[in-house]
Amino acid sequence: MLKQSEISKSLQMKIGNMLSFIPLSPNQWTVIAVIVAVIAAYEIAMGELVYGLVLFILAGALDMIDGAVARARGETTKFGGFLDGLSDRFVEALFLFSLMFYPLPTIFIDPKIWLAGLIFIGTCMPSFVRAYADHNEVISHEKAKGLGGIFERSERIILLAIGMAAGIFISMDYFVYAVILGIVLSALTVIQRIVLIMRG
Predict the structure, then answer these.
(1) 167 burial level (CB within 10 Å; 0-12, 13-18, 19+)
(2) Lowest CB count within 10 Å: 5, 52, 175, 183, which one?
């Protein structure tokens, strides 16, 4: 039975092979994904949640294509991986930041604080902990790359997408609760990674 990661890699390889004929480099796909995310952020800031969400989903799909095309063409580079990881964080932060301009309901505290918390604890800290441990050679590069967690980027994106969908069709309270849950699970992931690093 195939693991989820193997299924994902197989799917990405098929997508890469299908789209490899398009005369765009992997890094150009990455830049297009960021441009689409900027447009999506503008739409959300203007109150167009449905358009914004659809465009962010498109940006996420485009962001997957760059790596798939690079592997299909045999054009993977260290800089491409760096640019891809950078765009991942930028796109996610743009999504959350754009919602600071939308009148979200207050749950316990100002929703902007929740959004800022998820940008820091969720978008930035898990990857920073891994990168900084690798940079300071606290653990080997191989172990740093293999550091997992109970709540990584893919799970975070799914949670936010479900929360946003529930917010659009039912009540935006659900989205704010999804953000709060994301902060808690992201914090647990950061702690989990720190413990794994301490164990070497």
Answers:
(1) buried
(2) 5
